Amino acid sequence: MFTHNKRLQFTVRVAEPNPALANLLLEQFGGPQGELAAAMRYFTQALAEDDAGRKDMLLDIATEELSHLEVIGSLVGMLNKGAKGRLAEGVEAEGELFRSLQGNGCSSHVTQVLYGGGPALINSGGQLWNAGYIDSIGEPTADLRSNIAAEARAKIVYERLINVTDDPGVKDALMFLMTREMAHQKSFEKALYAIEPNFPPGKLAGMPEFQEMYVNTSQGDGDMRGPWNSDDNFDYVSDPDAFTAVDGGDGVPGVGLDPAEERLVAAMAARTASDPGSNPVTGIELGKAEGTMEKTTKVTMSADGADDTSARDA
């Protein structure tokens, strides 16, 4: 069961209202890299986890992410306090109030009108939170890697938010949240490396002849070699003949059909075949101006044997 402690994990202090900043912080409330997405990601993974240690870790971090959601939501609410009161009480002229909610080109007027300045489950662009943000697949070695990347993305978003505010209390809270993302990332990485082997993800091994192949499919100026494609780590292949039809076949797709299916496919192909010798008039041609249409008609007539050059000059 869950219980709620009324004290925040980190004390939030806001120097002054700032609706524009509040709107940006919604990215970490209801956005894809936000705290709700993180909490739901780790909580649902924990429920399906069979390893006792990983289950405990995931539940701990999922619950802490909910506390971070509360910190971000509190910041959003406090940054909106002044604007919320002005809008609710209508103390300013309509135009002036609208302009104040659009400070710095921000769309906080949308969140103010629709949600009353509260921390809505949307991102900073107004998109509704959705479960599609959660990409868990139920394989620990894959999910832990995804969790590491999710914490890294969240840290980057917090860095960007820190860079757009000079409010010391807001900066401190965002720095705390950013730092906790780093701690979670370390826990997930330790848990991943505690699984041996952990690569490749899953159970099945790859095909030996292909698992070390690096295919240089983007060729020309800018080709680079490094540890990602070095001869020490990979079988580097640049010749197209060497990386097409690598199974030894002809590279042409085929499917086995019974005689009845073959007849039906042949009949469909005959019915839908295009005539390569035709030159039908299109809707675009019909819609052209009269002079242009005349020229088009003459060029079309040249397909019957007239000199192409004279047709174009006509």
Unreliable spans: 91-95, 310-314
How many DSSP-defined strands? 2
Percentage of residues assigned to helices: 40-55%
Classify the secondary structure makeup into a structural class.
Answer: mainly alpha
Q: Strand share of the residues? A: under 5%
Q: If strands are numbered along the chain, what order do they take across the biggest sheet?
A: 1-2
Contiguous helical run count: 15
Q: What is the mean pLDDT?
A: 87
Could you describe the 3D structure shown?
The structure is a single chain. By secondary structure, the protein is mostly helical. It has 3 domains: 19-193, Ferritin; 208-243, no CATH class; 283-313, no CATH class. Helices cover 54% and strands 2% of the residues. It is built from 15 helices and 2 strands. It has helices spanning 19-25, 27-30, 35-48, 52-79, 81-89, 94-101, 108-115, 140-163, 168-193, 208-211, 240-243, 259-271, 283-286, 290-301, 308-313; strands at 213-215, 235-237. The protein has a two-stranded parallel ribbon. The radius of gyration is 31 Å and the shape is extended.
Topology of this structure?
Blueprint: H1 19-25, H2 27-30, H3 35-48, H4 52-79, H5 81-89, H6 94-101, H7 108-115, H8 140-163, H9 168-193, H10 208-211, E1 213-215, E2 235-237, H11 240-243, H12 259-271, H13 283-286, H14 290-301, H15 308-313
Parallel strand pairs: 1-2
